[in-house]
């Protein structure tokens, strides 16, 4: 029996062919036709005009926040319930993340808390420089109230859609809601370039500036000339070719992960104490990861016992994100609420959802979970 991973990449003949075609074309560089095509195809998928391929989602977040004016001494509202990179990018700019609790209804940043915090700060004359939302585990945040609150106070919204390519909110694509959005193609995301990301925006000016800064801020001149400090943040042409093939398979990956969640729901339907991450009525997730919560009293074992039993059976499962306000690195960061996401962390477990996970392997996972119940 082989190890079952949480969310391994699924690549095949299309990926091999496109990667080798790029290799054979000798565009082994951070420029090339596959980058331009990957940007155009991804922008088209999201319904935006502009996309800039970058070396990671984190790099994209860094550029997005920088270009929206976040700087030293600023504060930025960020969900506490997310991967650390969402807040790291704020710190790169010398700004402070203000960690906002999630809504128990959808596990994404609580729109009521954001609105109340913006109102409170407006009265004090210290509005944050930006609000970052995260489309968690492939499900969008609640954008109608979030955008209304941000517009009311003139605060730009950045959408961290790293986990949510292909998801929708009221029919609109994840990634398209902020002044800028970012996607990630890290190895465990719904599509991967082994490492990479994309910054997307409706603004040509923002996208052009991002492309410029991501390419060492090289001015147009025959010699190397620079007027500002830039970054080496571009994606390579080889990886863009891989990304194009993966993007072509996105709908397949979504359908597979959706089916995997359906199977988990069926497998656990008679087990007391297990609940799934809520699926809000306002949109369709991309089903990136299936995350369950385990009520130890009703189920008879806690989340950690289940995780260890899975590990014992050579199956990788992960606790839900440990909230950033409970992370040692952010002990001094301001917090707004925090008990809702702490409760999900206590009970939340992400189960294997790789798109190539077959029924027999998935039954192995479900059987181990079942065996830990009392
Ligand atoms: C993966 C992820 C990132 C970072 O993306 P990288 O491409 O790994 O830099 C940022 N935010 C969230 C919510 C993520 O899940």
Could you write a compact summary of the structure shown?
This protein is α/β, with parallel strands linked by helices. It contains 13 helices and 15 strands. The chain has 2 domains: 236 residues, Aspartate Aminotransferase, domain 2; 123 residues, Alpha-Beta Complex (Aspartate Aminotransferase, domain 1).
- Helix content class: 25-40%
> What percent strand?
5-15%
Biggest sheet, spatial arrangement of strands: 1-9-8-5-4-2-3-14
Care to count the β-strands? 15
Keywords:
374 residues; alpha/beta; Aspartate Aminotransferase, domain 2; Aspartate Aminotransferase, domain 1; 4-stranded antiparallel sheet; binds pyridoxal-5'-phosphate
Characterization of the model:
With 374 residues, the protein is α/β, with parallel strands linked by helices. It folds into two domains: 236 residues, Type I PLP-dependent aspartate aminotransferase-like (Major domain) (Aspartate Aminotransferase, domain 2); 123 residues, Aspartate Aminotransferase, domain 1 (Alpha-Beta Complex). It contains 13 helices and 15 strands. The strands form three sheets. It has an eight-stranded mixed β-sheet with strand order 1-9-8-5-4-2-3-14, sandwiched between helices. Strands 10-12-15-13 form a four-stranded antiparallel β-sheet. A three-stranded antiparallel β-sheet has the order 7-6-11, with no helix packed on it. Helix 1 packs antiparallel against helix 8, helix 3 packs across helix 4 and helix 9 packs parallel to helix 13. The protein is globular. The mean pLDDT is 97. Bound molecules: pyridoxal-5'-phosphate (PLP).
């Amino acid at each position: 029996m082989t190890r079952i991973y949480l969310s391994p990449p699924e690549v095949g003949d299309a990926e091999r062919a496109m990667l080798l075609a790029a290799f054979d074309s000798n565009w082994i560089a951070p420029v090339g036709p596959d980058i331009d095509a990957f940007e155009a195809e991804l922008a088209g998928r999201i319904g935006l005009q502009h996309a800039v391929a970058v070396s990671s989602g984190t790099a994209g977040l860094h550029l997005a926040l920088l270009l929206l004016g976040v700087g030293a001494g600023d504060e930025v509202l960020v969900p506490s319930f997310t991967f650390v990179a969402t807040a790291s990018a704020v710190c790169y700019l010398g700004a402070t993340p203000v960690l906002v609790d999630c809504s128990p209804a959808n596990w994404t940043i609580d729109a009521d808390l954001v609105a109340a915090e913006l109102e409170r700060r407006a009265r004090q004359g210290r509005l944050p420089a930006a609000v970052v939302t995260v489309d968690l585990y492939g499900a969008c945040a609640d954008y109608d109230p979030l955008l209304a609150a941000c517009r009311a106070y003139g605060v730009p919204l950045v959408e961290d859609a790293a986990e949510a390519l292909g998801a929708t909110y009221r029919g609109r694509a994840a990634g398209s809601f902020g002044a800028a959005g970012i996607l990630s193609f890290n190895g465990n995301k719904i599509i991967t370039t082994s490492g990479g990301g994309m910054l997307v925006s409706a603004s040509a000016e923002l996208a052009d500036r991002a492309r410029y800064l991501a390419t060492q801020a090289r001015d147009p001149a025959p010699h190397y000339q620079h007027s500002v400090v830039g970054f080496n943040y571009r994606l390579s042409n080889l990886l863009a070719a891989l990304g194009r093939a993966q993007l072509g398979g996105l709908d397949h990956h979504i359908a597979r992960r959706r089916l995997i969640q359906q199977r988990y729901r069926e497998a656990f339907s008679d087990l007391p104490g297990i609940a799934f991450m809520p699926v809000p009525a306002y949109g369709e997730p991309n089903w990136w990861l299936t995350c369950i919560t385990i009520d130890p009293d009703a189920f008879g074992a806690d989340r950690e016992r289940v995780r260890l039993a899975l590990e014992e059976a050579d199956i990788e499962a992960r606790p839900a994100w440990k909230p950033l306000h409970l992370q040692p690195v952010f002990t001094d960061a301001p917090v707004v609420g925090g008990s809702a996401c702490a409760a999900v962390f206590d009970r939340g477990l992400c189960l294997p959802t790789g798109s190539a996970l077959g029924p027999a392997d998935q039954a192995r996972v479900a059987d181990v979970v079942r065996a830990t119940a009392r």
